[in-house]
Description:
This is DNA polymerase IV. Belongs to the DNA polymerase type-Y family. By secondary structure, this protein is of the alpha+beta class. It has three domains: 1-168, Reverse transcriptase/Diguanylate cyclase domain (Alpha-Beta Plaits, 2-Layer Sandwich), CATH 3.30.70; 172-227, 5' to 3' exonuclease, C-terminal subdomain (DNA polymerase, domain 1, Orthogonal Bundle), CATH 1.10.150.20; 244-344, Dna Ligase, domain 1 (2-Layer Sandwich), CATH 3.30.1490.100. 37% of the residues lie in helices and 23% in strands.
Amino acid sequence: xxxxxxxxxxxxxxxxxxxxxxxxxxxxxxxxxxxxxxxxxxxxxxxxxxxxxxxxxxxxxxxxxxxxxxxxxxxxxxxxxxxxxxxxxxxxxxxxxxxxxxxxxxxxxxxxxxxxxxxxxxxxxxxxxxxxxxxxxxxxxxxxxxxxxxxxxxxxxxxxxxxxxxxxxxxxxxxxxxxxxxxxxxxxxxxxxxxxxxxxxxxxxxxxxxxxxxxxxxxxxxxxxxxxxxxxxxxxxxxxxxxxxxxxxxxxxxxxxxxxxxxxxxxxxxxxxxxxxxxxxxxxxxxxxxxxxxxxxxxxxxxxxxxxxxxxxxxxxxxxxxxxxxxxxxxxxxxxxxxxxxxxxxxxxxxxxx
Length: 354
């Protein structure tokens, strides 16, 4: 019988904003947003002081300022964030070779082999967090569990600057107490659909049969069925490269006006761009997806000569693609934007991984 895995999910606390507050003491204790405060700007990251006001990443700058008029915008310095990320990943490498980065500021670590000879995975996570603080001046939170799904959920439980463990004997029961909106793989649209079906908690999800989930969620049903029971057999895989990043939304009503549809597409492009900035992964290919009121679907794609490295260019390509299907007589119920064909922004920076 194979040993129970010991998985740690490390997530830096408000990483970009914390780096800015570390490097500029005048920003400490103040609401800070990394991004550009211009009318068309988007928040890339927000400090905890800003989050109190409801400021979040991917939020338009004008909305963020409306929520927090004292918000201080700081231009992003991705060269600095990459350098700090390399420091953090060098620390990880002292504990395990099985490191699966999700972005510059979070990663899974499989410490089952216990390279450092520490008593428990809990102690290992504490040691890693202490070293990150000592060597970078930044805090990290950690989740410790026997699989990736639970470790990622656990790292949110004691944020900021804390850690939480989910043991094998508590995993399934703990999941039942959580809202499904917190589950990795359940986005806002899916969470809303689950709510309409009477599924709001892990317990609600567990009570649904696999046949019911397959009827309503198709290929995702097996994943939802497993995680409702605290099950996730995915290994920590340092070699699995993410192939695309996308965002889509279902409108409250079917849209036919060009301006409304284009606004929806730009909103999804902004979500994708926020992810690209955070991970520093930029793709050459942009795809726009459209689902009509009769559920027929079309996609339009275009590849640039090089990676799309600005929000403005992503907007330009997304608009060109959606305009290729406009005007429309049929109402549009969903639009999505995806970037693929990734290239690393820096040859020394690995691509983002699942």
